[in-house]
Amino acid sequence: MGGSLGGCTSAKKLVYFQETTTRDDTVTIPEPFIPTIKKGDLLSVQVSSLNPEASTYFNPSAMAEASVVPNTTNQLTRASGYLVGQDGTIKLPLIGQLTVVDLTTAKAGELISSRLKSYLKEPTVNVRNLNFRISVLGEVARPSLFTIPSEQITLPEALGLAGDLTIYGRRDNVLIIREQGNQRVFARIDLTRRDAFRSPYYTLHPNDVVYIEPAKVRVTSVDRAYQLAPIITGILSIIAIIATRP
């Protein structure tokens, strides 16, 4: 394969998670990332109880939710739910305002369920964050914005959703852009090494951006195409003129 790319890309550069020099095959699994609700998040709140008819009052409009379908342009318009205001609250029917900011979705569900016990018998509440989205850009098969219903995704899983890196994508210099407080952090991961599993950026956070840089061979081939295009066009024009002469 490297030969087909002008000998500039070796097979070794395309292999993920290569052996270390110590041949240590055990890598510690990092603690799972548990996201919390932020201001501006859009929450899906689904309520059920022993009285389904009464429960429907708390599930207005059977909210249409975003799904993990790459390359769809209307994901953002299909998502609807309860917007977390700048005061960190959402407003539910009968219950009124509830402060949910900095809670996990599981804790928010427990809070809502406890308030619903005045209106429903044995209520069960499922809360999901519809704003858990990531972007995968650059040298991948299907660059796109993805919504993650499970609120848990790793870097390899995100690349899988995007159809994996193209043959031109750099595995050894994957860029992760993450918002942390009032800062935007730029971090890089080498996916050809197994210690990529130890990176704090291996597990993605909401609104992370994954960017895959093109390898030098890709840039060179594009430049060569731009250089050759006028020449080829000129040759074809001359051939066309000669062919049309009487």
From TrEMBL:
UniProt KW Signal keyword: yes
Residue intervals of the Polysaccharide export protein N-terminal domain: 36-128
Highest taxon above the source species: Bacteria
Entry coiled-coil feature ranges: none
Keyword annotations of the record: Signal
One Pfam family here: Poly_export
InterPro entries, per the entry: Poly_export (IPR049712), Poly_export_N (IPR003715)
PANTHER family per the UniProt record, alphabetical: POLYSACCHARIDE EXPORT PROTEIN GFCE-RELATED
Name of the protein in question: Polysaccharide biosynthesis/export family protein
